[in-house]
Amino acid sequence: MSTTTAPKQHQKGEMKEGKEGEKNIRQTNIIAAKSVADAVRTSLGPRGMDKMIISPNGETIITNDGATILQQLKLQHPCALMMSELSKSQDIEAGDGTTTVTILAGAMLSAANILLNKGVNPSVIARAFHLSSAKSAEILKEASIPIELTDRESLLKAANTSLNSKVVNQSSQTFAPIAVDSVMKVIDINTATNVDLRNIRITKKIGGTIDDTELIDGLVFLQKASHVSGGPTHIENAKIGVCQFCISPPKTNMDGNVVITDYAQMDKVLKEERAYTLKLCRAIQKSGCNVLLIQKSILREGVSDLALHFLAKLKIMVVKDIERDDIEFICKTIEAVPIASIDGFTEDKLGHAENVEEVSIEDEDKIVKITGVKGTAPCVSVLVRGANRLVLDEAERSLHDALCVVRSLVKCKYLCPGGGAMEMELCCKLKQWAETLKGEYGLCVKEYAEAFEIIPYTLAENAGLNPMELVTQLKLAHLNGEKNAGISMRKDNKVQGSVDDMTSLNVVNPLLVFLSAVKLATDTVALILKIDNIVVAR
C-alpha cells in the first residue's frame, strides 16, 4: 500500500515567506491528508473491500477496520499522521466509525480547498466549519431516536449494523447477541452511564468455526487441568486459590552447585524434596482450597509432578501456566487475592465459584471453565473460535467494535438511521441554514454541507451501484421530509440498491458515533487549515 511522504525538507530555521508559500504549504498538507482518506475509502460499508497488510516481520492482517489499516501504514507527512490519529481518536471515543471519520475529514478538506481557491481566508473557513459542526450536532439530536437499555432488540440492531460491514458479517447473528449480553452482564442497566470493557475478556482458540464462539459467565482457560491419573476435573462449590509461587522444590542459584557423592545423600535429598512438597500441599488443603490456579514461572516449573500427585490425592484441581497479565482480571472476577507465598495461603484470600470444570471442545482438546461467579464486580469471558489466526484476529476486532457500539448506546441512549441517511439529512438541513447566513459564512457552510454527500456516494460506489443516481434520489427523499431514507444494499424483487427507510430495515447506528465523527473531523480539518508554515526546529 502506498505511503505518504514528507514535504521537501527545509534548512533548519528556514521559513517560507509570502502568500504563495502559505498557499503551497496548505495545498501540500491537504493533498497529504486526503491521500490517507482515499486509502481507506474503498473499505466503507457492507460491500466495502478488505485490505491485506503484511508487516515487516512477515505477519499478515486481513481487515477493513479503518483504525487498524491506518495504524499499520508507514506515514511520514505530519498531516497524514494527523489523519491516522483522528481515526484512533474516533476508535477511543466511539469504537466505530473509524473509516467514516477519515473519509469525512478528506471531503471537508476538499470543500475547504474549493473555498481557498475562491479567496476565502482560512480563519473564516475554520470558524464557519466549527459553527457548522455545532449546528450539525443539533440536527443529529433532532433526527435521533431515544431508546432504553431494556430494549434488547434495539441494541441488537445497532450491533448487527456494525458487524454487517466486517469480514465476519456472515456470523453477525452469533456475535451481536454476545456483544449485547456481555455488556448487559457487567453493568447496572438502571444507573449505568459508561461501560468498562476491561470487564469483558476475549480469549481466542484456534479450531472450530466462528459460529462456535460463546459467552461464558465467568472465566475460561485455554489450558486443560493439570492432573495425574485420578485427579479431579470437576469441582462444585469451588474455593479458588490464585498462586503466584511455585509448588516445587527450591532450586539453587544459577552459580550454585550441589555435590552428591553417594546413594545415601541422594535418598536424603529426594526425601527432603518429598517432605517439602507434601508440606506445601497440606498447607493449601488446610486453607480449604479445592481449585488452584498457578501463575506461569520463567525460572522453574510452576508445579512439579510430585506436587500434582499429592494435590490429586487431596482432591485439589490444578490449572497451571496462568499468564501474569491475566491475574488481575481473574482475581477481580472471582474476588480472590493473589497469594505470593505459602505463609499467606489463608481462607480469606480464596475466590469462590459454583462450578469449575474441564470440558472437551474437540476430539482431544480441552479447556477449563469457571462459572457461577457471583462477585460485586461482574466480569464475563468470550471464547472466540476460528479456523486460523487471521480469522481469530479479525473476529476479535469485529467483536470489539460491536461491544463499543453497545457501550456508545449506554453512554448516549439514542439511535440514528444508517445507510447514509444522517449524512444526507445533515447536507440538506445545513444547506437550508446556509441560506440564512450572509457573506462568506453562508458560502463556507454550503461547501461544508456538500462534504457529507461523500458517505452515501461511497456506500453506493463500493456496492457497484450507480452513485450519482442513488445520491440524487436520496437527496430528493430528504428534501421531501423522509429523514430516515438511506441507501439499501439488500436485494428486493427488482434491483439491488435502492433508497429505503433505514429504520424499517434495522440499519441503525448510535448517535454518539455520528456526533464524535463530525466533531473530530471538523476539529482536525480546522487544525490543518490554520497551518501556514512548516519550520524545522534547530
TrEMBL record:
Residues 1-25 are annotated as: Disordered. InterPro entries: Chap_CCT_delta (IPR012717), Chaperone_TCP-1 (IPR017998), Chaperonin_TCP-1_CS (IPR002194), Cpn60/GroEL/TCP-1 (IPR002423), GroEL-like_apical_dom_sf (IPR027409), GROEL-like_equatorial_sf (IPR027413), TCP-1-like_intermed_sf (IPR027410), TCP-1_chaperonin (IPR053374). The keyword Chaperone applies. The keyword Chloroplast does not apply. It is found in: Cytoplasm. CDD domains: TCP1_delta (cd03338). It holds the Pfam family Cpn60_TCP1. One of its GO terms (molecular function) is unfolded protein binding. It comes from the Eukaryota. Residues 11-25 have a biased composition (Basic and acidic residues). Molecular chaperone; assists the folding of proteins upon ATP hydrolysis. Known to play a role, in vitro, in the folding of actin and tubulin. Belongs to the TCP-1 chaperonin family. This is T-complex protein 1 subunit delta.
